[in-house]
Amino acid sequence: MNHPDRIAAWLVDTENGQEAMEVQDDTKLEGSIRVLLNAQDHTLGNMLRSQLLLDSNVLFAGYRIPHPLTNQVELRIQTDKAMEPYVSPRKALLNACIALMTQTRDLKASFIEQVRVAEMDTTSGPIASGAGPALTSGLGAAGNGIGAPYDETHVWGGGMGGGNAAGGAIGAYGSGAPGVGRGAATQAGAGHDDAYEY
């Protein structure tokens, strides 16, 4: 197959002298640079372009993949020399990278915090309302659609909420609320003595 190796898409081959990034002044366009990102693809190229375009000093930011079989991104950046204070294309790129790293760090911290809160909610006992510990994305506790034992008297209401459904709820005494489809379907249990109710 002609498709490049997936691992090579993000590993820089430093043993063979490959640089992660090469920055050159662009002679075709005044106040611009050409950046080659080796061992990268559309993921980083599009993120950088989008972040650069949020900067009011940037006149042009675009990227392309020179060849579909090479793991390389070519990024061109032009800034406005008339803006005060002047921000060079290199500084604009640095600002974009710092902003993306900050966003990624904040996203990771938010995700870890929400997982921690969800784990605390699921280990502290049953949620009688059937609402389930919801994350910001709208997903409740993961389930596969079949009730699994929570403890001796409670059952996980398996399933993932879709649309308006309340999914992944812990049911009190066998009545979970797995959401399937658009409604908040309920799951009637046989009684709190049966830990393996469906």
UniProtKB/TrEMBL annotation:
Signal peptide: none annotated. It is found in: Nucleus. The keyword Zinc does not apply. Keywords: DNA-directed RNA polymerase, Nucleus, Transcription. Pfam families: RNA_pol_L_2. Its main location: nucleus. Residues 33-108 form the DNA-directed RNA polymerase RBP11-like dimerisation domain. The keyword Nucleus applies. GO terms for molecular function: DNA-directed RNA polymerase activity; protein dimerization activity. GO terms for biological process: transcription by RNA polymerase II. Gene3D superfamilies: RNA polymerase, RBP11-like subunit. GO terms for cellular component: RNA polymerase II, core complex. Belongs to the archaeal Rpo11/eukaryotic RPB11/RPC19 RNA polymerase subunit family. This is DNA-directed RNA polymerase RBP11-like dimerisation domain-containing protein. It comes from Naganishia liquefaciens.
